[in-house]
Design goal:
Blueprint lengths: L11 H18 L4 H12 L1 H24 L5 E2 L7 E5 L6 H12 L4 E2 L10 E5 L4 H23 L1
Antiparallel strand pairs: 1-2, 2-4, 3-4
Helix pairs in contact: 3-5
Length: about 160
């Protein structure tokens, strides 16, 4: 079950027009189903517990990510401003999609290529900070090892 919302920003005249159009689209095509409508009050009442769990996991994974990244030089990350993703800057050895597929195939690591999030060019990967800590650490370790091994090949 899914409930959704949107935040809209912009100049007042355009924002008002956009919100009016979005309301028509939402009412026409995106109406919330009855089970979601019935469950929503309970979901919202219990949000603090879930938000605390999400925040704790995201903060722990980000702390562990920074620890791992500090011990090598091939992978870095952008500042996290919000949300539960970290953007990694990696050597642009191949397209982001090919790199993501290689990491899945060869190392069992699932990661998003940067273009999924609007990053132009290669050398960007996006990782979820929601993953269980042990799985997250294994994945980040595999990513760092992959790029460090590639760096060692270039040094030789």
């Amino acid at each position: 079950m899914k409930a959704a919302w949107i935040a809209a920003f912009g100049p007042k005249p355009e924002l008002g027009q956009a919100l009016g159009r979005l309301e028509i689209i939402a009412d026409t095509f995106l109406s919330m189903n009855a089970p979601v409508q019935c469950a929503l009050p309970e979901w919202l009442a219990g949000r603090e517990r879930l938000q605390a769990q999400i925040s704790a996991r995201v903060e722990e994974n980000l702390r562990r990510l920074d620890t791992l990244l500090s011990s090598q030089t091939m992978v870095s990350r952008l500042e996290v401003e919000a949300g539960w993703y970290a953007v990694l800057r990696v050597p642009a050895l191949e397209s982001g999609e090919d790199l993501a597929l290689r990491l899945i195939r060869d190392h069992g690591v699932s990661i998003h290529p940067g273009y999924f999030f609007g990053f132009g060019g290669d050398g960007w990967l996006v990782v979820s900070l929601l993953t269980r800590v042990s799985e997250f650490l294994a994945g980040i370790d595999a990513i760092c090892s992959f790029f460090n091994e590639m760096g060692d090949e270039f040094k030789a």
